[in-house]
Here is the input.
Amino acid sequence: MRRTAALIVGGGPAGASAAISLARGGAMPVVIERSPGERDLVCGGFLGWDAIAALKKLGLDPAALGAKPIHRLRLVAGRKVVETELPAAAAGLSRRRLDATLLRMAEEAGAAVLRGRTARALEEGCVRLNDGSEMAADALFLATGKHELRGAVRPIGTRPVSVGLRTAIAPPTDLAGTIELHLYNGGYAGLLLQEDGAANLCLSVAQSRMAGGREALLAELMREAPLLAERLGGVIPADWEAIAGVPYGWRARSAEPGRFRIGDQAAVIASLAGDGIAVALASGAAAAHACLHDDDGAPAYQRAFAARAKRPIAIAETLRHMAEAPVRRKLMLGLAGWPGLAKLAARLTRVG
Here is the structure.
C-alpha cells in the first residue's frame, strides 16, 4: 500500500486548485484522476468574475486559453426575454480546456497526477483503486464532484435532486458576449460560447421529470421552451453527457479530521445564479491552506466554508425555485427588468 502526505481524489478545478496550492506550499500531493485525457463534462462552462480572479491568483488568465468574454445576461421564459448587464466581466470556457490546463499547472508545481485511475471506495482510511491497489494519506481531499465515493458518500438525506445534461451545438449569431438562461418547469438551460467555437448547452431538470426517459423529457422541454427549440433548429441533439442525483443547496457542515470535502463535495450551488467553478476553486484553495497552516485542519475548514457559502447558496436556491414554477417565474422575469436588481442578485450569490 502506498502512503502520501496529501491525496486528492478528483482532478477537476477543486482538486487541481488544492493540488497547486499544496505543492506550492511545500507538500507533495498525489491526484487521482479517472479520465486518462481531456474530456468534456456536464458543466455550464461559465466563469464568473470571482472564478476569473481565483484563476489569476493561481497564475492562469482564462483569456490566454481563448475564453469567450461575457458581459450580459439574457433570461428567457416561453417567448418573454429580459436582458441585463452583469456586474463584472465573465467568460465561457470548456471544462476540457480548463481542467487540462489546471492539472498541468499542478504537475509543474510538483504534484503527482495519476491519470486513468479510478477511486472505487474508501475503506478503513484507505482509498481502493480500480487496479486493486490501495493508497492512504495523512490528508484526504474528496474532489469527486457530483459523483460519490463508496465509503464517503455525501449525507444529503431526502433532499430532492436534479439531473444535469450537456451537449454542444452550432453557435447562434446573437450569442456573443451573452450567457442565455432558458427557464422551464423544474429546471433551466444555460447557453454560452466557448473557446472552441461551439455553444455549450447545459440543462438542469428535476429528477422527477425523468420518469419517461431522456428523449421524452427533451421533447417536452422543446415545447415548453420554444426559443430554446429555435436555437436547436427544432432538432434534439443525439449526443449528451449526463449526471444524476445533483443535490442543489447542499453544504458539508462538518468533517472528520484529515478529510477535506471540496468542490461539489463541499457545496452545490445552482448554476442558474451561482458559479460552481468559483466554488470549486475557492474551496480547493481554502482546504489546502487549512491543511498547511491550521492545526484544526479539516473540521475548521469545513465549518468555515459552510458558513461562507450559506448566504450565496440560500439566495441561489430562492432564485432557482422562483425560476422553476410558472407563477414565480413570471415574477422573477419582472423583477429582473428592474435596473440594478439582477446585478445585485449576481453579486449576492458569489462564494469565491
Summary: Residues 2-65+94-158+248-317 form a domain with the FAD/NAD(P)-binding domain fold (CATH 3.50.50.60). The CA atoms of residues 130 and 181 lie 39 Å apart. The chain is about 35% helix and 30% strand. The chain has a mean pLDDT of 93.
